[in-house]
C-alpha cells in the first residue's frame, strides 16, 4: 500500500467533525441534512429487542450462542481487532483520538447519525483505508439481513472488511433503520433508503470516492435492499451503484409477505402500512419484481428491476436453502433480468451442506473474495444507448430528470440515443409531466441538426426539455412541417419554445402517433 499523505487520525477527525460540528485541526463543517448532535456511543438506538431475537429465530431457526444483534460496542470492536491483525485500530467515536495512529491496515469506526428527513437515528460502521487520499477509492456498501443490525457484517461477513483493506476500498455497513417496528428489519422501505442516502452523501462529501465504482452487496433482506437502492438511485452526482452482489435477496416483497413466518409478515404490515393489496404502490416501489400467488412473474407488473438493465448484478443462492421461496425468487429475478436486452446478470448456485450454516441460509454460502473480485472489474455505465426508466418520484434517473404529473405513482418511458444520427427517442410515456436532459450529456451536438423522435405520448401532453443550447434554433420542423415557437401553449398542445436564460429548447408533444422533430 502507498504511504498516506495524511494520517488516519486526520481522516477520522474529518468525519467526526462532519458529524458533530466539533472541529479537529480547525475543520468542523456539518454536512447538509445532518444534525450536529448525532455522534453517540454504542447504546444509542440499539435495535436488539425481543422482537429482533424472535425475527432471527424465525429466519434462521436459532440465535447463535454468544452473538448479539444490536449495535457493536467497544468489546466487540476490540475482539474484531484481536481477530483481524490487519486492522490498524478500531474505535467508537469517543475513543477516536487516542486509538488511531498511522499505519497499514486502515481504521474501523462505529457511528450513529440523526437523519433529519425522518427524525430517526441511523447506525453504521465505516472502514477507512490507510492509503493516499489524493487517489479516488471505490466505496462498498454492505447490507445486512433481516433481524440483525449492521453488526451482522462483523459477526458473519468480516471478510468484506478484509477485502476492503486489501483492495483499498472504503466500506460502510448501514443499519437501514426501520421506523415502524423493529429497527433492523426494513425491507427496502423508502425511509430506510433515506438513511442510506444520507450515509453515502456523507462519505462522498468527506472522502475522495470514485463515483464510477460504488459497489453494493447484501444477504437475504439485505440483497433485496441493495438491489432496490440501486434501482431507485440512478443519479451519479449523489451516488449510483455500478454493480451489486445479491445473495438470496428478497426481491419480490409480496411473495415474502405470503410465504415468510407470520412474525415477518406482521413486521412488513407495519413497514408498508398494510398488506400488498392495500398501499400497493409502497410495496411495488421497494420490490424489484412482482409475482403472482404461484411465484410466477406478472407480465404487467411494476418491476423496478427495469432500472437495473445497465447495472451488472450477481445473484447467489444455496440450492438447499430452507426458504425455498427465496430460491424461487432468485431464479425468477434471473429470468426477468435476462429478458432485458442489455442486462448483465449472473445466477450462481451453491450446493448445500455448508458447515455451520443454519438452515443453509447464511452469509457463509457466499464466496466473499470472489464476489469482491467480480465487483472490482465493474464500473458505472455512463451513457447507455437505450433503456426504460421506471420512476417512483421526481429525481434524476440516469441522464434524464423526471418531473411527475402525479406524485405517489409511477412514471415510465422508454428512450434510445443514436449519437451518429444526433437523435434521441422518447416513447411510451406514462405520468411524465417533464423529461429533461442536457444534450451534450446524451452524447449529442446542439450545434448540428438535432432530431427528437416521439411515439405513444400521453394525450395530456409531455414536455421534453433539452438543455445546452446557446442560441435559439433557426428552424424547427415536425414531420417536415415548419413550426414557429409557441411558448404560451397549453400543456396538451403541440409546439416548442426556446428559453435563452436557461439555454433550453422545450418540445410539447401529445400525439399517440410517431413524430420526428428537427431542431437546427
Give a structural overview.
By secondary structure, the protein is of the alpha/beta class. It folds into two domains: 8-376, Rossmann fold, CATH 3.40.50.1820; 386-519, Immunoglobulin-like (Sandwich). It is 25% helix and 25% strand. It is built from 13 helices and 22 strands. It has helices spanning 8-20, 50-60, 74-83, 96-99, 152-156, 159-167, 190-206, 221-232, 253-259, 262-272, 280-286, 324-338, 368-376, and strands spanning 89-91, 107-115, 120-128, 137-143, 170-174, 209-219, 243-247, 313-318, 345-350, 386-391, 395-397, 400-404, 411-418, 423-430, 432-438, 450-455, 462-467, 476-478, 481-482, 495-499, 504-509, 515-519. The protein has a nine-stranded mixed beta sheet with strand order 1-2-3-5-4-6-7-8-9, with helices on both faces. A seven-stranded mixed beta sheet has the order 10-13-14-16-22-18-19, with no helix packed on it. Strands 11-12-15-17-21-20 form a six-stranded mixed beta sheet, with no helix packed on it. Helix 9 (253-259) runs antiparallel to helix 10 (262-272). The radius of gyration is 24 Å and the shape is globular.
Question: Structural class, from helix and strand content?
Answer: alpha/beta
- Strand line-up across the major sheet: 1-2-3-5-4-6-7-8-9
The main β sheet shows up as: 9 strands, mixed
Identify the CATH architecture of the largest domain.
Answer: 3-Layer(aba) Sandwich
Low-confidence stretches: 1-50, 60-104
CATH H level of the largest domain: which superfamily? Alpha/Beta hydrolase fold, catalytic domain
Q: Mean pLDDT, rounded to whole units?
A: 83
Calculate Rg over CA atoms. 24 Å
How is the CATH topology of the largest domain named? Rossmann fold
Q: What amount of the residues lies in strands?
A: 25-35%
Please count the helical segments: 13
Percent of residues in helical segments?
A: 25-40%
Report the end-to-end length measured between terminal Cα atoms. Answer: 53 Å
Counted up, domains total: 2
Q: Based on DSSP secondary structure assignment, what is the total number of beta strands?
A: 22
Q: How would the global form be characterised?
A: globular
| CATH classification class of the largest domain | Alpha Beta
Amino acid at each position: 500500500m502507498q504511504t498516506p499523505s495524511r494520517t488516519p487520525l486526520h481522516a477520522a477527525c474529518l468525519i467526526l467533525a462532519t458529524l458533530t460540528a466539533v472541529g479537529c485541526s480547525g475543520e468542523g463543517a456539518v454536512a447538509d441534512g445532518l444534525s450536529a448532535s448525532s455522534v453517540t456511543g454504542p447504546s444509542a438506538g440499539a435495535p436488539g429487542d425481543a422482537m429482533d431475537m424472535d425475527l432471527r429465530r424465525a429466519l434462521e431457526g436459532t440465535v447463535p450462542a454468544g452473538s448479539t444483534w444490536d449495535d457493536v460496542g467497544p468489546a466487540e470492536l476490540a475482539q474484531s481487532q484481536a481477530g483481524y491483525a490487519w486492522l490498524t485500530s478500531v474505535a467508537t467515536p469517543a475513543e477516536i483520538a487516542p486509538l488511531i495512529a498511522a499505519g497499514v491496515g486502515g481504521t474501523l469506526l462505529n457511528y450513529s447519525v440523526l437523519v433529519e428527513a425522518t427524525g430517526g437515528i441511523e447506525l453504521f460502521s465505516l472502514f477507512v483505508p490507510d492509503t493516499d487520499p489524493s487517489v479516488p477509492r471505490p466505496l462498498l456498501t454492505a447490507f445486512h439481513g433481516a433481524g440483525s443490525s449492521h453488526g451482522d457484517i462483523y459477526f458473519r461477513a468480516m471478510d468484506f472488511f478484509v477485502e476492503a483493506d486489501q483492495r483499498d476500498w472504503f466500506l460502510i455497513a448501514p443499519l437501514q433503520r426501520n421506523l415502524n417496528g423493529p429497527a433492523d428489519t426494513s425491507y427496502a422501505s423508502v425511509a430506510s433508503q433515506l438513511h442510506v442516502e444520507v450515509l453515502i452523501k456523507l462519505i462522498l462529501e468527506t472522502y475522495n470516492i470514485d463515483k464510477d465504482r460504488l459497489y453494493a452487496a447484501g444477504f437475504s433482506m439485505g440483497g433485496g435492499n441493495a438491489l432496490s437502492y440501486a434501482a431507485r438511485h440512478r443519479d451519479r452526482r449523489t451516488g449510483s451503484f455500478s454493480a451489486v452482489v445479491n445473495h438470496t435477496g428478497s426481491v419480490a416483497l409480496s411473495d415474502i409477505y405470503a410465504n415468510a413466518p407470520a412474525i415477518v409478515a406482521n413486521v412488513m404490515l407495519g413497514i408498508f402500512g398494510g398488506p400488498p393489496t392495500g398501499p400497493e404502490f409502497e410495496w411495488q416501489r421497494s420490490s424489484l419484481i412482482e409475482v403472482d400467488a404461484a411465484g410466477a412473474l406478472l407480465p404487467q407488473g411494476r418491476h423496478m428491476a427495469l432500472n437495473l438493465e445497465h447495472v451488472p448484478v450477481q445473484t447467489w443462492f444455496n440450492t438447499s436453502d430452507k426458504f425455498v421461496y427465496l430460491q424461487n425468487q432468485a431464479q425468477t429475478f434471473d429470468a426477468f433480468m435476462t429478458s432485458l436486452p442489455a442486462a448483465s446478470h449472473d445466477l450462481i448456485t451453491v450446493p448445500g451442506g455448508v458447515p455451520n450454516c443454519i438452515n443453509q441460509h447464511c452469509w457463509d454460502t457466499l464466496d466473499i473474495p470472489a464476489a469482491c473480485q467480480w465487483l472490482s472489474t465493474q464500473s458505472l455505465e455512463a451513457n447507455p444507448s437505450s433503456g426504460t426508466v421506471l420512476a417512483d418520484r421526481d429525481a434524476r434517473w440516469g441522464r434524464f430528470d423526471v418531473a411527475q404529473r402525479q406524485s405517489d405513482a409511477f412514471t415510465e418511458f422508454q428512450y434510445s440515443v443514436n449519437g451518429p444520427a444526433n437523435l434521441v427517442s422518447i416513447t411510451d410515456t406514462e405520468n411524465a409531466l417533464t423529461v429533461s436532459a442536457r444534450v451534450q450529456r446524451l452524447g449529442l451536438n446542439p450545434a448540428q441538426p438535432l432530431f427528437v423522435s416521439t411515439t405513444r405520448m400521453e394525450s395530456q401532453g409531455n414536455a421534453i426539455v433539452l438543455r445546452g443550447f446557446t442560441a435559439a434554433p433557426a428552424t424547427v420542423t415536425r414531420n417536415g412541417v415548419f413550426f414557429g415557437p409557441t411558448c404560451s401553449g397549453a400543456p396538451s398542445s403541440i409546439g416548442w419554445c426556446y428559453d435563452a436564460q436557461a439555454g433550453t429548447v422545450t418540445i410539447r408533444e401529445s400525439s399517440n402517433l410517431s413524430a420526428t422533430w428537427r431542431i437546427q
